[in-house]
């Protein structure tokens, strides 16, 4: 089973790939799988388009700025904690973790939207 590396986790690919079938059966199965993939494509394009509405380059820029700010807050909090020279308390760790989680979630959302554009689910106007 192969895996796909995304920015924060690995996702296993579990597509069935028949090895011992006759060529006619393989063509039929490939055709069926293409229909399934096309149905998923159309569904994603319609649902995502309705949910996200108008998306343009400025939308991506706002999300990128928000993500950069979250990264900066996470790093600034870590530096602030290091300046004291004392051990980090559970409350400080929780605050640092919250900043990291915010950054990671925003970064994942940005990457997901970028993939939506690449796959044609989301049309940039």
Task: Describe the protein.
The protein has 125 residues and is mainly alpha-helical. The chain is 70% helix and 5% strand. It is built from three helices and two strands, in the order ββααα. It has helices at 23-52, 57-84, 90-118, and strands at 3-5, 10-12. A two-stranded antiparallel ribbon has the order 1-2. A hairpin with a 4-residue loop joins β1 and β2 (10-12). α2 (57-84) packs antiparallel against α3. The relative contact order is 0.14. The model has no long low-confidence stretch (mean pLDDT 89).
Which residues form runs of ≥5 with pLDDT under 50? none
Beta-strand content estimate: under 5%
The total of helices stands at 3
User: What's the N-to-C terminus distance?
Assistant: 38 Å
Report the helical percentage: 55-70%
Task: Name the shape in a single word.
Answer: elongated
Number of strands: 2
Strand and helix order: EEHHH
Widest β-sheet, arrangement of strands: 1-2
Main sheet attributes: strand count, strand direction, barrel closure: 2 strands, antiparallel
Please state the oligomeric state of the protein chains shown. single chain
Structural class: mainly alpha
- Specify Rg, calculated over alpha carbons: 21 Å
Q: If you average the pLDDT, what whole number results?
A: 89
């Amino acid at each position: 089973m192969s895996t796909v590396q995304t920015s924060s986790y690995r996702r296993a690919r579990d597509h069935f790939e028949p090895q011992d079938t006759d060529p006619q059966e393989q063509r039929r199965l490939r055709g069926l799988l293409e229909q399934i993939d096309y149905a998923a494509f159309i569904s994603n394009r319609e649902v995502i388009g309705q949910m996200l509405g108008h998306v343009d380059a400025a939308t991506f820029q706002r999300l990128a700025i928000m993500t950069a700010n979250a990264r900066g807050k996470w790093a600034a909090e870590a530096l602030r904690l290091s300046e004291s020279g004392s051990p980090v308390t559970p409350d400080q760790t929780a605050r640092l973790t919250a900043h990291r989680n915010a950054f990671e979630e925003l970064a994942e959302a940005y990457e997901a939207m970028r993939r939506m554009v690449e796959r044609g689910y989301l049309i940039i106007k």
